[in-house]
Amino acid sequence: MGFIMDGLDAEDYDRTYSDRDLLRRIVSYFRPKLGSMLLVATMIVLLSASQAAIPTLGSLAVDAIADGTIGQVGWLLTAGILVTGAMSWVFNYIRQKYSSRVTGDVVLRLREDAFDAVLERDLSFYDETPSGKIVSRVTSDTDDFATVSSLTMDLISQVLMVAFVTVLLFVRSVELALLTLLVVPIVVGLALMFRRLARVSTRRAQRSLSRVNANLQETMGGIAVAKNFRQEQQVYDEFRPINQQSYQVTLRQGFVFSTIFPVLFLVAGLATVGLVQLGGVQVLDRGLSAGDWYLFLQGVSLFWFPLTSIAAFWSQFQQGLSASERVFALIDAPPRVVQSAAEPPGRLAGRIEFQDLTFGYDADHPVLRDFNLLIEAGETVALVGHTGAGKSTLSKLITRFYEFQDGRLLIDGRDIRTLELGAFRSQIGAVPQAPFLFSGTVADNIRYPRPEAGDDEVLAAAAAVGGGDWIDALPHGLETDVGEHGRALSMGQRQLVALARLLIQDPAIVVLDEATASVDPLTEAQIQEGLDLVLAGRTSIVIAHRLSTIEHVDRIIVLDHGRIVEEGDHAALLARGGRYCEVYNTYFRHQSPHYRAGTGFVTVGEAAPALD
Ligand SMILES: Nc1ncnc2c1ncn2[C@@H]1O[C@H](COP(=O)(O)OP(=O)(O)OP(=O)(O)O)[C@@H](O)[C@H]1O
Fold this sequence. Notes:
Layout lengths: L1 H4 L13 H12 L3 H34 L2 H51 L2 H6 L2 H42 L1 H9 L1 H38 L1 H6 L3 H53 L5 H43 L19 E8 L8 E8 L4 E5 L6 H8 L7 E6 L2 E2 L5 H5 L2 E4 L10 H5 L8 H10 L4 H4 L18 H15 L3 E5 L7 H15 L3 E5 L3 H6 L2 E6 L2 E6 L1 H7 L2 H10 L24
Parallel strand pairs: 3-8, 3-9, 6-7, 7-8
Antiparallel strand pairs: 1-2, 1-4, 4-5, 9-10
Helix pairs in contact: 3-4, 3-6, 3-11, 4-6, 4-11, 6-7, 6-8, 6-11, 8-10, 8-11, 10-11, 15-17, 17-18
The structure holds adenosine-5'-triphosphate.
The site of adenosine-5'-triphosphate (ATP) has 11 residues, from helix 12.
């Protein structure tokens, strides 16, 4: 049992909606399609009536055979059955056409809303939720919801037909009609009992499938690394139990659903036996005509088919309901980053002040505790420190990707929580270590922050970065296709595109995580030139990995376990011989052109001259 249920827990944002809330929510998606739905409903009524008319005409034919009048009315009844059959086809065609459109439109809207919700989520959401699981909610869960909506229409049509047949049966023989109806509460009772079981097993099956998706997604993302380290077997070993689990859970779901049908068919069979016996006796006693008896037997199959298929629908119905629950939970997931107001920030000067700020990805384990730091407008600050010191965390708070728990973060003296988030973020230029490029051309990527930017602006930005020589090295200049994730460009070229993109954005504050990957000296020089241009006149926070950067910034801040342990400029900090020297020896010193392996380390713990 343990294995089967492992990893199938709900996501943090999952919730259970009451049937009423769920239904109300689903109805709200269908409401704009009221006109088409009325047409579908009319067609369903006509279709059900015409389907119920066929056995009625058949029963008249049986009576005519018994009376010996079939010779006179036979052709009329045949024509009647033909016309009713043809009309059924037309009604069904119109019904299918419009109901498919209604379902398609509703799913389109639901998927748009789900995708919108995904885009709106804070970065913490992406840290906590594997992307495969998100994809699964936006695609297969909305598909399951589509199935529910078309099933619901089928269900309504079947229920209506049952209603028509019931009326007919009562008109013919109250006694036999009551016998037929006697079984309904048993079937409905069984279906209701089954409901709970079905919902639980269906939900598990969906979660296990999204686990499979998440695993596949991660495998595809890291396939190059896996192949590099020849870890295909390990990847497969990880996939196997997850896939097995999905198999087991789906099998269990199948078992749950397969128990209901034999039970239902047994009840139906017993009822039919009763009807054959009782009806036959009544025909012999002349209390019932042969045609009526025929209608009852036909009616029973017409009657039973919808009832048993309602139970059959149940599985998919439940699947769709829990899918819609999952999609709504995604749409309704509360944001972690909450603004207390939405004041227009105006053009920011870029003064940043952390005041007694406390933050932890998990509130019980703070990464920053009572943290204080003031960065003046226009200042360029380098954050250095060992891995895990909290450098990226600071930048994630400035970009407002995460919500801090305590203290204040002021931008130009205003509480960051009061600024209109979209307008604020548009003035923050964030460059990650490995800049992400979208499929398209180099020009498309440069104009990404401002799609209305003209070709000349894009060209000017590209030319300004690194002297523009790098554009000539691209096979089709700015029209070169960058490939998926920018794979068609070298690492250095991707960084240059990211810098040109910043120029187009023209942010007030730049948060830059320098790439650790080394590039050739020419590209390095171009990047440095580009950086000087991009950072000039803006407040800049650089998570520094390059010697040339730390040598030129206004202030270096040395972080250790979320605390500032030293700050100052390069020469002063080196002279102090403290923590900065350690970091310098570890990360930066070897980049110096004068560096010789094994020599020239700056002594830690005592004042030492600045060596290069
Ligand atoms: N998304 C996250 N969820 C939980 N903990 C995190 C997350 N990101 C970082 N941390 C933790 O927060 C601490 C600070 O991490 P941070 O990424 O800020 O360090 P860093 O100084 O930028 O390190 P590096 O130079 O390796 O990028 C680390 O202990 C890290 O494990």
